[in-house]
Write a structure and sequence with these properties.
heterodimer; A: 206 residues; mainly alpha; 7 helices; disordered N terminus; B: 124 residues; 4 helices; 65% helix; flat
Chain lengths: 206, 124
């Protein structure tokens, strides 16, 4: 193997300084991964606030009285299934399979929207029961944490709609594939945050 | 493996050389479903010693997060994933510092504070 082959091939012995800049797909993926980790740090701060304040009900309703485990299980199932369809969608994108990409992206959208519907019905039933964010420190922390996650899911759904339109109009060009790839990372990360939410908030209450 | 990709490591979530196909997602969804159902069962059963339930829930949640990272986000400790793995390790470190730090500090403050009924008596 000559020097040129060593420098431009993929041999692991090439020193880092000789490998040249990383391809755009790697830079974009890594940058978005760093964003996701910092987003998870934001959630960590909200989890810490909830953990500290979860007992401070100020005589108002507590978690055991308010939370409906059946609905939380349905929400979890929706989000887990949408993470799965999102993964199958990114495989279809890798195959440049337009039809299946649309099928899986639409399934992801419907399951995400179902999750948001369940969450909205939970919030509205809590409001009618007098458990608004201003009732106690526990409820303020609860609505901030779960609401921030719901807001992320809402933004993700808008992003997914935009990506479906872009796949339709621009096709699978590298730029669109990178954006779809970032979307799937975002969606899987939201599912990981939800594991923390249902464990600490909903199951930890009983 | 694509030459284009291994110049400077791999982005997270690239599944092309981890077997590819839906297998990884199917395995991940299976494990995640089992772990989710296990934690919902553990929180409502009477079979487990009460004070042990939060620990069991924590273990199940961390296991499920690991399943999601490995089978959905395709994070591993492979040499071309070093950057992603180090960033993840730092993220976990910061999360642990924020969550457990806040809980320890606030528990200490609560412990150091005078009980509310005695505080009320002193104000009279």
């Amino acid at each position: 193997m000559n020097v040129a082959q060593q420098a431009f091939g993929s041999s692991p012995e090439i020193p880092l300084s000789m490998r040249g800049p990383a391809p755009t797909a790697v830079v974009v993926g890594f940058g978005f991964w760093l964003f996701l980790l910092s987003d998870i740090v934001i959630f960590a701060a909200l989890f810490a606030a909830y953990a500290v304040l979860s007992g401070e009900t100020a005589g108002g309703p507590n978690g055991t009285e308010l939370f409906d485990k059946g609905r939380v299980l349905l929400e979890t199932a929706c989000l887990l299934a949408s993470s799965f369809t999102c993964g199958l969608g990114s495989l279809a994108v890798q195959r440049r399979d337009m039809q299946w990409s649309f099928v899986w992206m639409a399934a992801t959208f419907i399951l995400g929207a179902a999750f948001l519907t369940f969450e909205a019905s939970e919030f509205s039933s809590m409001f009618t029961a007098g458990a608004a964010p201003s009732r106690s420190a526990f409820l303020s922390a609860f609505f901030t944490l779960v609401g921030t996650h719901g807001l992320h899911v809402t933004i993700g759904l808008f992003w997914l709609l935009v990506m479906m339109v872009q796949v339709m109009t621009l096709g699978f060009r590298p730029m669109v594939r990178r954006r779809l790839f970032c979307f799937s990372l975002f969606w899987h990360a939201l599912d990981i945050v939800w594991i923390g939410v249902f464990t600490i908030v909903y199951l930890g209450a009983s | 493996m694509n030459d284009h990709y291994d110049a400077q490591g791999e982005a997270p979530g690239i599944s092309e050389h981890s077997g590819g196909g839906p297998r990884s997602y199917l395995i991940g969804a299976g494990f995640a479903t089992i772990l989710t159902l296990a934690s919902f069962w553990a929180s409502s059963t009477q079979l487990i010693y009460g004070p042990g339930v939060p620990i069991l829930l924590g273990v199940l949640a961390i296991a499920q997060m690991g399943v999601h990272l490995v089978f959905f986000l395709h994070i591993s400790s492979a040499p071309d994933q070093t950057n992603n793995f180090l960033a993840l390790a730092f993220g976990i470190f910061v999360v642990g510092l924020v969550v457990f730090g806040s809980m320890i500090i606030m528990a200490n403050l609560n412990h150091a504070m005078m009980p509310m009924d005695r505080l009320m008596q002193m104000q009279r």
